[in-house]
Amino acid sequence: MATLLGSESPCTGGKRRNCTSNIVTKFTASKITGQGFSRGTQLPGGLLQERDKRAKWHGIPTLLQKLYESSHPNSDLSHAHSFLKVLSSQLSMEAMSFVTEDRKTAQESTFPNTYTFDLFGGVDLLVEILMRPTLTMQKKKPKMNDDLVKDCLSVLYNCCICTEGVTKSLAARDDFVLFLFTLMTNKKTFLQTATLIEDILGVKKEMIQLEGIPNLSGLVQSFDQQQLANFCRILSVTISEPDVGNDDKHTLLAKNAQQKRNASPSRAEVNQVTLLNIPGFIERLCKLATRKVSEATGANFLQELEDWYTWLDNALVLDALMQMATEEAEQSSTESSDESSLATSPLRHRLPQSMKIVHEIMYKVEVLYVLCVLLMGRQRNQVHKMLAEFRLIPGLNNLFDKLIWRKYTASNHVVHGQNENCDCSPEISFKIQFLRLLQSFSDHHENKYLLLNSQELNELSAISMKANIPEVEALVNTDRSLVCDGKKGLLTRILTVMKREPPDSSFRFWQARAVESFLRGATSYADQMFLLKRGLLEHILFCIIDSGCTSRDVLQSYFDLLGELMKFNIDAFKRFNKYVNTPEKFQTFLTQINSSLVDSNMLVRCIVLSLDRFESQTEDVKVVEVLSECCLLSYMARVENRLSFLFRLINIINVQTLTQENVSCLNTSLVILMLARRKAKLPFYLNALREKEYAEKYPGCLLNNFHNLLRFWQRHYLNKDKDSTCLENSSCIPFSYWKETVSVLLGSDRTSLCAIASYIDEPFMDLDRDLLED
């Protein structure tokens, strides 16, 4: 028998005592080199039995030999199945301990049975057995027993979670991964298949291409609603860009370079298009997202839910129980009977009410995630049109009180960060995913008015009429048949629950982001007044000044929301002055702003822009009154305060550290200088920057840094239509003026009083000349 070390027998002479370790060593080496032993069937049965007790293999190599011998092509697989059942029972105990206890690092000492099973070729053997029908030349493929397939898949999954490297080795086999999708057509093996695929795709180096799955459209259309919900867990891996950390923390320099290298659509983008081309796919997701479930009752609901969650690690146990309920009721596979048949299942009635709720919530999380990713993709307008047509927003509004935001005490909240992948309960994940979806839905899109009901739309029209300003075109064009039903729209409901959240609750971050996205884009006075009338400004100021909130994420979201709410709105500044009615309150407010300009600079930009507009409206008595009385406007009107903000905004960023999160600091500094240029005061500001450099004893550093930042700005924004549109809409300054101002500042003529170069002494010129060179 050939071995890794030549033709020498594995057990000879004085080496006999090391026989067991030699066998293990050679099997391990063969997996790495591809040479030598490939499976335990190559060893004599007597040798395996002799060494079994000493090595504590528990008969697994011998059982694998019998499984191999009884699973040859054209053989009766009933005998093979009996051996597999014995193996499965030995491995399942280890898998269950891994799922229900604290997860430990998968290693030989922790899970010896699965380690031995894989070492002696068990994983490869099961893959061969499963794929055997695909290797036949017969037109009619032989059908394997469903229970055999289920047991093969379950054992493979157990090996994946208990033995390091198994999942990656399976993920490397593209033929096997694509084959697994074909098994999903069988409802009896669907759950086991979906669970294994989810695990494999999570570690696969290259994202799978959905268009490579045989008859994907037919496969998806064959799913009932419960299967489709489960399938969304798989889809989430295939349509999201690879997770390489927090997107906001990636430098724009690196991201721009990446986009240059990868000009063609990514695999995730291609997969999104593939899904959108499946007939009825989006409509069914909307039905899943908005279908109703039984309302939970009882004071102990949350505790009961938390108890279940502690052992429902990845829904494996929960899905198995729900499948048992389905099978017991002998439910048909047609979509129309899903909810009614599940409701009449005897076992489902025996499951705890909270378990049914969690089951539905966990699936809705995945469905909302898929919809959210598609909303942020290149086909955004196509997706928007379909979500509106299939009444996603009214459906979610009807679920809000009964499922999405049921009433319970604040003490039950757990503060979580804003990472959507955080390890938190289904209840929390559901709320966050819901808010993220609303944020994506509203952001810079005319469909945002679907978040209101008919009465609220009429209120917006009345506000515009009273102020003698035309209604926003998007409001006029809103299809009233697609808006929210009931006494309140979704936007109003979010405002209501936001006011009840504890000061540092992470939900506040996402709630503020969702409301802010409604206000983004071209400023609408009616939209602002709609929210001001509901006390939003006072609530935000309370949180910033009086609540004791210390979360930087929550404070940043409130600064951004406050900026959108107050921009160009004289009534908002009047309300601000009424709330911030003491020097102590105003000082606290300024302290919060100054504690992190990266977080608060959008609010600073709003104040600067609003002040500039109000100063041009001095014929309006109301404006003049607020200008003279408002402490915030008076503070920003002092040039030394604007210069102080400008110094710090430029100083806290540089080209190498620019990210999507802090690039707003650069744009806010540009806004200050553009408004100065309009008033022919740009030379004054540039000279003040030069004097600041010399006062701080670092001549040239500030201005050279700003020069480099503006060079990057040209490269970044002149090639990104969306970003330039956002800049124009949010500032009401034509983008042509942005470009012109940057060009003037970067002018090479050292005699120009508006060129940065004129204010840098020759010895300190171009400290970072090659910073942006390719």
UniProtKB/TrEMBL annotation:
One of its GO terms (biological process) is ubiquitin-dependent protein catabolic process. The keyword Oxidoreductase does not apply. It comes from the Eukaryota. GO terms for cellular component: Cul4A-RING E3 ubiquitin ligase complex. InterPro entries: TRPC4AP. Keywords: Receptor. GO terms for molecular function: phosphatase binding. The keyword Calcium does not apply. PANTHER family: SHORT TRANSIENT RECEPTOR POTENTIAL CHANNEL 4-ASSOCIATED PROTEIN, TRANSIENT RECEPTOR POTENTIAL CHANNEL 4-ASSOCIATED PROTEIN TCPC4AP. This is Short transient receptor potential channel 4-associated protein.
